[in-house]
Amino acid sequence: MAENETCGASGIGPIDNRLFVLVLQHPQEKREVVATAAATCGALRRAALVVGLSWPNLARALGRPADAKRWAVTYLGSARPAAFGTGQEVIALDRGGMPAADQDAMLRNLDGVVLLDGSWSEAKTLWWRNPWLLKLRRLVLNPRHRSRFGQLRREPRREALSTIEAAALLLKHLDGCPEIEAALVNRLDHLMAETRADRRRFFQPAGVGG
Fold it and tell me: Can you give the C-alpha Rg of the chain in angstroms?
């Protein structure tokens, strides 16, 4: 089987990702002009977007039975990934908030990953209101570059990525498919271009243009 068929990132139809992506979206995030959760889930064959503040467990949020031990979540601890001194872009943490001794074991055999969608404070609210997240494996992202959002939407920390960028980075490494990252980033670029065009039309002076 050809590599792009394995990854399912040929650009035709939804991306056939292996690792399921569950996005928990804070209700206020839906008001943001540049919100990427819907675009992320729309691009992936195995993904779901749920909006709310709390769910009793992973299965209720996902809408089907799930083994929490085989799921991970992007962790919002105070540790700065760059300080760990590793070149890894996806780092598994132990319960003490430090890099796990056996990274391969922690990143292997995952069924899915949970992403918290919202501003930094909104994502932290989701974390604290859903204690079942503590049962999942904890991952932090250590991207080599800042978010592509730039001036469109300021991020508080270098490693704070948009939801679609976070999904792209995770699937690149955990699905082992760089093509998925490229496909998702391409969709983000299109979304940002449309947003900039809409802003230019909105702020265009009266009497200018057709």
Answer: 18
Domain boundaries, the chain: 13-202
Encoded tokens for 5:
């068929």
In the predicted structure, residue 168 carries a pLDDT above the cut 70: yes
Q: What is the dihedral of CA 145, 194, 180, 171, to 10 degrees?
A: 60
Sign of the torsion formed by the C-alpha atoms of 66, 69, 71 and 77? positive
State pTM to two decimals. Answer: 0.82
Instruction: Give the pairing of strands 137-141 and 90-93.
Output: antiparallel
Contact present, 107 and 92 (Cβ < 8 Å): yes
Residue 94, amino acid: D
Alpha helices in the chain (DSSP H): 3-7, 37-43, 58-62, 103-107, 120-129, 163-174, 178-202
- How far is Cα 204 from Cα 201, in angstroms, rounded to an integer? 5
Question: Is the predicted pLDDT of residue 6 greater than 50, yes or no?
Answer: no
Residue 164: which of 142, 180, 140 has the closest Cα? 180
**d(Cα 18, Cα 151) in Å, to the nearest integer?**
33
Sequence-separated (6 or more) residues with CB below 8 Å from residue 168: 180, 181, 184, 185, 188
